[in-house]
UniProtKB/TrEMBL annotation:
EC number(s) reported in the record: 1.1.1.36
Signal peptide annotation: none
Similarity comment: Belongs to the short-chain dehydrogenases/reductases (SDR) family.
Oxidoreductase listed as a keyword: yes
Entry protein name: Acetoacetyl-CoA reductase (EC)
Primary enzyme class: oxidoreductase
Protein source organism: uncultured Thiotrichaceae bacterium
GO molecular-function term, one example from the UniProt record: acetoacetyl-CoA reductase activity
Oxidoreductase recorded as keyword: yes
Gene3D superfamilies: NAD(P)-binding Rossmann-like Domain
């Protein structure tokens, strides 16, 4: 039986590429979408060349994640692989950052790892197989002016990966972080053009990454071949940050 992949925010740039990569490899694909975006999510699912089941879920809300898990179970799925991909930016210089911007980013980008992963980890332990792949960011590794909230949440994501990796290391479950650099998605295209051009100029490869270049790494980490890799943080950033 094929393994089942759950991607949070699968409708976004990196999420869609992950769904496509894994569908091509024969996985059963499930994606969450933000409840207010049901129509767009349905349109997205219809447009794809692969089958994808979509589930309403606000990843920042534990009860919403619990309801999503129930809906997935009711459809007869066990989740073998989670890609915690849903994320937002609310950029602003720290002295001007509102508590709302801080909280929204922490809830969606960091609390979500607890809210979503907690629903499925017991099933993975029982079945003695699991992959948890957390999509973080170069900015969790190097920090970024204008992103104290996002950088803190994304650095926290890897702390989560390392701690959970240790807890489940003998259960056939690996937990890893992928830290993309600036990828050509809506999130990056929303940066003011002159600032974005400046950023691209700081990337040694002088270009944005492509969502597929992140998806192939995720696909590898989900595979049986990657069984010995856990608690690791993989950078894919065109040489913008090396450590
Ligand atoms: N380092 C140091 N100082 C900086 C700076 C930097 N990188 N960037 C800006 N500043 C300074 C400016 O020079 C300016 O100083 P003065 O007031 O003395 O002139 C001050 O900070 C304010 O800068 P802005 O004029 O840009 O302020 P703003 O309020 O108009 O905009 C901002 C703030 C929205 C954060 C804007 O700077 C911005 O968009 N920056 C880019 C942030 C970024 O990289 N976001 C990534 C989003 S994509 C993503 O997150 C995906 C991923 O994982 C990579």
């Amino acid at each position: 039986m094929s393994k089942t992949l759950l991607v949070t925010g699968g409708t976004g740039g990196i999420g869609t590429a992950v769904c496509q990569n894994m569908a091509d490899k024969g996985y059963t694909i499930l994606s969450t979408y933000y409840p207010a975006e049901e129509e767009q999510a349905k349109e997205w699912a219809e447009k794809q060349s692969f089958d994808v089941a979509i589930y309403s879920c606000d990843v920042s809300d534990y009860e919403s994640c619990a309801a999503m898990k129930e809906a997935i179970a009711a459809d007869g799925h066990n989740v073998d692989i989670i890609v915690n991909n849903a994320g937002i930016t609310r950029d602003g210089m720290f002295h001007k950052m509102s508590p709302e911007k801080w909280k929204a980013v922490m809830a969606t980008n960091l609390d979500s790892l607890f809210n979503v992963t907690h629903q499925f980890i017991s099933g993975m332990i029982e079945r003695e197989f699991g992959r948890v792949i957390n999509i973080a960011s170069i900015n969790g590794q190097k920090g970024q002016a204008g992103q104290t909230n996002y950088s803190a949440a994304k650095a926290g994501a890897h702390g989560f990966s390392m701690a959970l990796a240790q807890e489940v290391v003998r259960k056939g479950i690996t937990v890893n972080t992928v830290s993309p650099g600036y990828i050509g998605t809506e999130m990056v295209m929303a940066i003011r053009e002159d600032i974005r051009d400046m950023i691209i100029d700081q990337i040694p490869m002088k270009r944005l990454g492509q969502p597929e270049e992140i998806a192939s790494l995720v696909g590898y980490l989900a595979s049986d071949e990657a069984a010995f890799i856990t608690g690791a943080n993989f950078a894919a950033n065109g040489g913008q940050h090396m450590h």
